[in-house]
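Give me structure tokens for this 709-residue protein.
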Amino acid sequence: MTDYKKRKYGKRSFPKKKKTTSHTLKPGSDSKLKRVFAEIGVPETKPFIPDPFQIKSLEAIAKGDCLVTVPTGAGKTWIAEQAIAHTFQNNGKAWYASPLKALTNSKFSEFCKIFGPENVGILTGDRKENMDAPIIIGTTEILRNQLYDAMHQGEDLDTDIVILDEAHFLGDEERGVVWEEIMIYLPRRIPLLLLSATIGNAHQIAGWLKSIRDNECSVIEETNRPVPLYPLFLHPSGTLFPLLAENQAPQTKKRLYKKVLKFANTRHTSGMMRSNRLPPMSDILRILRKYRLLPSVFFLKSRADCDHALVLSAMRTHEESPERKDLRHRRIEELIASSPHVAEHKQMHYLKKFAVGAHHSGQLPIWKLIIETLMTEGLLDAVFATSTVAAGVNFPARTILFLNSDRFNGREFMTLTATEFHQMTGRAGRRGMDNIGFGVVIPGRFMDIRKVENLFNAPPTGVYSQIKINFSMVLNLLLSHSPEQVQKLLDKSFAAYLMANKDKKTSNENLNSINTDILWQNFLDHLDFLKKKEYVANDNKLTDDGEWTSQLRIDHPLMVAEGFQKNLFPKSNPAFLAAIMASFVNERETDDDAIDTSMIPKTLFKVFKKIDDGLKPFAKEMNSSGFESPTLYFLPAVTLYLWARGMPWEEVVSISKMAEGNLAMLILRTADNLRHIRNIGRVFPDAAETSAKAIDLILRDPVISTYEI
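Here you go.
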């Protein structure tokens, strides 16, 4: 095997450094802020007393289902803890589901401290620990899969309460279908506790749940923030102003402060308004420090901006006590002990010396967790993050700052919704640590001040059905249901409820776009194709091939199943199998022509070509029937192969042409697909054994160190 450590590669190219502005901001504040800034401080320590909405939530879940919708940071987790404690004390079992693996791991650590590690288990794609514990923490996909299995085996889910955290994910375009399936399939005897950020149609969701579960679903709403939020405007001169005018009637919309209104009505070309440059971050931090507005989270439009903001923040002398700096250094050493790789992280200098960090999806999971930990413990002054950090990550700060009134959704920039905006502002003001929180608007090319004014006044947006049919869903439902029974399940969808209860007065933008007739027809189309390919028999029962394929709960189960049926996949070489599965997981177009084929064995290319050519007829058949099939690229396969064979991380990152975070996600998703192949060992024992070996090869530092902190 080639000694990768001796191989020399060309220098990795980096984007040119952005020009920085020489404009200096001079700290200043409007006279009206003197009273507001006087409120800054740490609240007096008092014995914890639950808020009325928390008490009402526990009373409601004792009688039936309950949907809790409150501002971010208001104390939803306490409700979950108490509901679990009550169930546990009565010898019952609890299932706590969250949308993110990072959040699941965080809750697992929290609950182990509360209930004892022997009483808490965790189930994610990457971790399976203490699975028979009375309290299970897991991802929503795992819970949905357990419901599939329970229906197939004719058993009841072995739990006495289900808690769905971040329940507004019901409206997530990509993953909302999983939440909706859980709510439809969950046996009515099991109380359902939904914990959500503020949403606009909570009673509509509760009405739907009552209609399909025949249980009363109480809605507990709280609109008051535990820590008041005060909006500010940072003028290009460096002066802070109130964003909104005061002394207005409570029921009227708050308008822009007169000086901010004057600014918004005037065309500006100076200071922070100039081109698309980032403002002088070191000056802004100096202003925040002067007025005791730290720690802070800056929401920026791109990963590149987050990284560049670190450079800009380090352009002036950092003011910090030696004691705090020493404490941060010691804490960093403790956190990186399990991951030697991140000790040499290119942004470590900024973290240690200037107490600032960048947090975005291009970063390694271990690095993001280090940033989150240091911020939570009060050891950082600022984090520069993309808007994705607002959802599901515990990132407390005294002040959040906006540079944009839009956000990138993965495909394009879209105007912030009221719910997204409220989630971001929900990070401002730490309960028990701040008397008041601040949201600062920074003017610039991508900031519409009028839009932000409307967002501060806007009620939260509603959450609507995202249900859709896919082959994995159809196969798993047919394990235990006839098509007629499936149709009844689809009739229980939130989409069907919305169509049946459509209010003519409701604005078009709030109407659900999913037509239930089309949904049913889509199911029939999937069923017809499965029959044509002999995964389903004419009597609508799964064939043997259909049964084992149903266990491939992945994005492209039929393509992978066809590969195994045609004996195309490598069944004895773990590195080859990991490489091939990476091509099925990959969702990005790659430049395969740029691959230096001299560093990979010709056998790998032959295996890849055999699979690509062997599956093309099936892919064309899927496409002609109206179904999508993945385009297989060779670069992801090369990347996973080299990683599985032991190439150092830095070299694999360079070859992959991906950001570290994206590569880590590709590896983790590949491992998840390999686990599903391991589940079909009854039919393909060699492939299952090889999958297990492949997982061990690719899950190593720095990819999995996240779970060792």
